[in-house]
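re: the backbone from monday

yeah here it is again, tokenized this time
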């Protein structure tokens, strides 16, 4: 059975259900048929049939009554990661920056209106975080996301807002379209973007865009840490210029990759 998606294309509903089961299994970090039925809203017999098919193809493993994603997905993840030019281009620069400032440094890109973390380097003072390589984020809640949005055409930003909305994660999250565009104008002028407790209370970040010579937005590099510590680092140790220098190094690496 096929149906039209939001862009007018055709989608196969059986494939959609399989992907729903996979995503639910990933989010649950392993689950049984009953839990997956609750998570997906699909009939138990449908969930079981899709799990059986995935197991026969080696994409899930079964341990008792619980199913888990198989190690076969590692090859997909490694292939996608290394196929992204930002991964290799950012590896050394963000490691050097995190060693200098002692904080967690991320390199992200954008796809389908969401941000995706491509590379991470932890510094000596890094806080514990669930954001790692492959994590998807809304662009409006992060410094790196706003750094990217500020250099995208307005019509693309409008499309992203229409597609994903501006959901609030904390009381500090920007949830108004006009307020977001005002901030993006400031980011474009300043060269760097800030996130102050907009995703996690007490956690701040500074982001700089990674751009091509033609203005293509390849991604962003971000330094994040506890709000008071990052603010002191910004004032005392020229963190913004260090960040911009790192972004520029990544841009050069992409150019010659």
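seq for it, each position gets an aa:
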């Amino acid at each position: 059975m096929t149906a039209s998606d939001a862009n007018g294309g055709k989608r196969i509903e059986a494939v959609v259900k399989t992907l729903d089961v996979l995503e639910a299994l990933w989010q649950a970090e392993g689950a049984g048929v009953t839990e997956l039925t609750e998570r997906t809203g699909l009939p138990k017999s449908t969930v079981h049939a899709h799990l059986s098919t995935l197991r026969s193809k080696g994409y899930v493993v079964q341990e008792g009554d619980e199913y888990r994603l198989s190690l076969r997905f590692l090859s997909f993840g490694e292939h996608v990661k290394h196929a992204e030019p930002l991964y290799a281009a950012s590896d050394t620069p963000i490691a050097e920056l995190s060693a200098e400032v002692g904080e967690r440094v991320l390199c992200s890109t954008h796809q389908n209106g969401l941000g995706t973390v491509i590379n991470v380097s932890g510094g000596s003072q890094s806080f514990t975080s669930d954001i790692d390589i492959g994590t998807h984020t809304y662009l409006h809640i992060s410094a790196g996301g706003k750094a990217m949005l500020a250099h995208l055409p307005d019509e693309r930003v409008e499309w992203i807002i229409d597609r994903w909305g501006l959901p609030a994660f904390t009381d500090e999250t920007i949830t108004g379209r006009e307020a977001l565009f005002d901030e993006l104008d400031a980011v474009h002028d300043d060269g760097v973007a800030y996130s102050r407790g907009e995703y996690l209370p007490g956690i701040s970040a500074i982001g700089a865009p990674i751009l091509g010579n033609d203005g293509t937005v390849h991604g962003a590099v971000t330094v994040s840490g506890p709000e008071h510590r990052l603010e002191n680092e910004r004032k005392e140790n020229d963190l913004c210029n260090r960040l911009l220098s790192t972004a520029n190094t990544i841009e050069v690496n992409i150019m010659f990759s």
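The first helix runs from residue 13 to 28. The chain has ten helices and ten strands.
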